[in-house]
Amino acid sequence: MRKICIINQKGGVGKTTTTVNLGAGLSRLGKKVLIIDLDPQGNVAVCLDNSSYKDMYDFLMESAELKECVQNLGKNLDIITSKETLTKAEQMLVNETQRETFLRRKLKQIKGYDYVLLDCPPSLGLLNLNALLYANEAFIPVSTDVLGMHGLRAMIEAVNDVAEAFDHDIKVTKIIPTLHDRRNKICVQMLTKLKNEYYELVSEPIMVCSKLKEAPASGKSIFNYAKSSQAAKDYLCLVNQTAHDEMAMKTSETEELDSSNIVKKLMATS
Length: 270
What we know:
Layout: E1 2-6, H1 15-28, E2 33-37, H2 43-48, H3 56-61, H4 66-69, E3 71-74, E4 77-80, H5 86-93, H6 102-106, E5 115-119, H7 126-134, E6 137-143, H8 146-165, E7 171-178, H9 185-198, H10 210-218, H11 222-225, H12 230-269
Parallel strand pairs: 1-5, 1-6, 2-4, 2-5, 6-7
Antiparallel strand pairs: 3-4
Helix pairs in contact: 1-12
């Protein structure tokens, strides 16, 4: 099960849009996906025009059963939504022992999914720290402008600091250029800079597209709202890249296991 937080301390870079459409796209590939909204703004529920009977606050702080909080949206796609009450959860977590890993312990019961995607708030607060210590991967959407680049560097540093401080296995595995306009000089420059500095992590860009702004009003993913749009093509590319990475990871794990077995055999015969 891949546990991915979609995170950036900078707001307005398309975190929720990316979470919703990545999850919807992966579910169309036959992957079982759970989207968890950790942002008190609750935009996942808005984008998909659906909310769970009980939400993330109830699950974290009111001991609600997981099955009460998971809302099924169709084949392979579930969500746990949130609303402004989640702000209280962050305040209450301050008084918890081992508060940094509270979410990880609560989510241990989640099973049967290929992907758990966490839509994170635009901050570096306790909720995001919990998200980083639950997830094994971080996807960072970044606007292709100067401020976006600055925020990206700060976010990568934060992820690395958390990994080191808590001895936790999490890595930035995808940087997603968003709000890209190929007609804009600074966008083109920043995309080139991204690819030069982080070439192995950078996905193909998500272009500026009016359909992405319209889709939440209909409560649909971009694939259901405008499947022939440029935005749908861009997010399909991200979905395919993510699925391809999964295959590469499995190959790497198999090779490591085979290598380990060879070493054990050599040691046993020496």
